[in-house]
Write a structure and sequence with these properties.
Pfam families: DUF485 (PF04341)
Largest sheet: none
Number of domains: 1
Number of strands: 0
InterPro entries: DUF485, Inner_membrane_assoc
Structural class: mainly alpha
Protein name: DUF485 domain-containing protein
Helix content: over 70%
Strand content: under 5%
Keywords: Membrane, Transmembrane, Transmembrane helix
Number of helices: 5
GO cellular component, one term: plasma membrane
Amino acid sequence: MEPSVVQQVKNDPNYRKLVKTRSRYGWMLTWAVMIMYYGFTALNAFDKEFMAAKIGDGVMSRGVPLGLFVILFTVAVTAIYVRRANREFDMLTDAIHRSVGQHTGTGAKAGHAAEVGQ
């Protein structure tokens, strides 16, 4: 990519919005997952009686459903990120392609490449 095109992309307000929003959102979800994982691990390490306590009259301990919840939470967080990325972040990326393409005269080519995934 030519340096002038890179500079145009960096100067595009949609690019700055995309980078700022995606970064903040990604870190927020990362912290949520880290708190969940480390909380589960800390609970296992420091409160074994709580995790080993049986649920009802069965043989299942509290740790099993909590572990399943951690896994499902991670899957849900991933789905939430993908949904927003497919809606908002892809629209901003397309707007950047169109904006830079208008200035360089390659808008149709860049837009077509984005559609076919190149």
